[in-house]
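Continuing the series of single-chain predictions for the mutant panel. This is the parent chain; the variants come on the following pages.
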Amino acid sequence: QVQLDESGGGLVETGGSLRLSCVVSGRPSSDYVMGWFRQAPGKEREFVAAISRKGGDTHYADSVKGRSTIRRDDAKNTMYLEMNTTEPEDTAKYYCAADRFISSPDSWSTQGADTYLELWGLGTLVTVSS
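Parent structure:
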């Protein structure tokens, strides 16, 4: 059984940095395109970032572009999201997702694409204090 486990959430001050990790178990992470979504209280889940299988192609939501980096280390079966200059609006539960079939990271931001993704983690909560 393939599983995604997120970690790295917690309390961050406005303007601070965070690094989230997502470990894949049960199958090589290199089999998957991977990405991050988030859901703030009372809001719908939204796309954050995605990365292609070999890491050569990435795609970011406008809300995090320029202050976030998604990367992967398939030797460790792990994907990361690093975010700088955090804002209270970044407060959300962050979910790792993986898919073998939606191969273009750009496609992950298409409305409704998340409903087709193969695997999800349980999420890690990030709170940015104002």
